[in-house]
Design a protein that fits this description.
Elements lengths: L2 H13 L3 H15 L9 E3 L13 H9 L3 E8 L4 E6 L6 E3 L5 E3 L4 E2 L6 E5 L2 E2 L5 E2 L5 H8 L5 E5 L20 E3 L4 E3 L1
Parallel strand pairs: 1-2, 1-7, 7-10, 10-11
Antiparallel strand pairs: 2-3, 3-6, 4-5, 8-9, 11-12
Amino acid sequence: MFKKEIRLKYKELRQALSENQIEELSLAIANEVLSLPIWEKTYFHVFLPIEAQKEVNTEYLLHLLSGKDKEICISKSDFETRKMTHFLLTDNTKIKKNEYNIPEPVDGIEVPSNKMEVVFIPLLAYDKNGNRVGYGKGFYDKFLAECTQNTIKIGLSFFEPEELISDVNATDIQLNYCVTPKRTIKF
């Protein structure tokens, strides 16, 4: 299947989910994350969900990381350069939605991409090889290219993998894991 078809399919599947289903599935995903071999790491990057897109609610994951005393980073996107700037999430961090309804930090302590040890990645879909399909703007591929080779890349998805994404690009960066409500898939 091609990315364009996959995007349409998974946007429809997500829109069919109720708010209650999203909360239950998101909590199950956070519980599943506990089984990953990542807990000796310190710097964790987490996306804040776009509610209108019915993304995985990462609030449960944030509570989990906070409870384990991890350094949590969140991003602000620049739509002209398609680059993300990362900030440490603290009690003083002010969050504001941008013009695309993406919750972002207003400002704060900047953290470079190469400091990230674990990155939780939003996605629409992924395949059995760890290739992912996002919204097609390339923000995460640019960001992940700036991370170290040892950075653990974890997709979060409500759904099981597609067999194959037919039009993977050389710049697409594969996942190490994808966590679903029922299981964790290692690539």
